[in-house]
Here is the input.
Amino acid sequence: MSRIGFSVYLSSFENQKEILDKVGSKYYVFTSFHIQEELDNINNYQEQARQMCYWLSNKGFTVIGDVSPKTLKYFAYDDVLQFASDMKIDILRIDYGFSDEEILEIAKYKHLAFNASTVKKDFVGSLKNVNNDIYAFHNFYPRPETGLDEDFFVSINNTLKDLGIKTLAFIPGDEIKRGPLFEGLPTLEKHRHLTPYIGFLDLIINYDIDIVFIGDIKISNKEVKLIIDYLNDSIIRVPVRFFKPYDYLYDQVFTIRVDSPKWIMRLQESREYSCSGLLQEPNNCIIREKGFITMDNKNYKRYSGEIQIIRERLPQDDRVNVIGKIETQYLSIVNCIKNGMKIKFIKAQ
Here is the structure.
């Protein structure tokens, strides 16, 4: 299965079908059956919710359903397992209201996801003894300043990873935000105003999250493509703007040298440029800001032609030309690219 998932809401489902149709199956979807504003405002909610789940199941999505005792009462069910079966739910995210004993009984028959932030370690151990295929699902946080901080997030995930639990978290969308606040639905507060692509890479690479969900209603085609391309080939696309005459560097794949220091990323393949004898004339030798792309000039002798990406601000050097820069909204990608990884420069749109 993919490491990306989509949040689906009944109130916006018709608007979301297009992107779901486009990405196809093999993806996860998350939906909730106890969002109060939907329960209050959607006519014939139960039947519409059922039809939505059937559509998702028929398309091949793995459906994660957020369920509480309130859900069962509203749908007139006594048995949560029967509800899951009738609604084509593959994984139950058990919300508040179920006792530990009830959850352990459900876990005997169904894959479960639980709240990653509130579960107790000893209870997770008990769950693992009953069902080895369980998931820890972080919340999303609509209100600014309430998303999780990094230290707390890491401490929770370290415990879960030690127990062999898969971790799931949210990033905001960029095209249609979900109300009532319309300020993104991240798990980590630092992702609230970042692009989905950067939030995704950060969770996957820096925090080893197993599945990342778009919390909001819609993500742009551009961001979806960046994410899916990475999932397909593990090459990080870096949106940049090169100054002429360096346009030839677009769409080329480079490897970050494994011995790159923390302040620059050295592009392994660019050594060939310096070995070819092509001497670069000094040009645009300015202060090297984070995210700038540089090329050594002839004043650096045999290093002329080598390319670097700047991780930390460096001083001006007459031997180093600034040849381009990472697009501003993607600047944080520098924190996601590790030594040994492959990247591809793409033209910023």
In short: Residues 45-58 form the longest helix (14 residues). The chain has eleven helices and 15 strands.
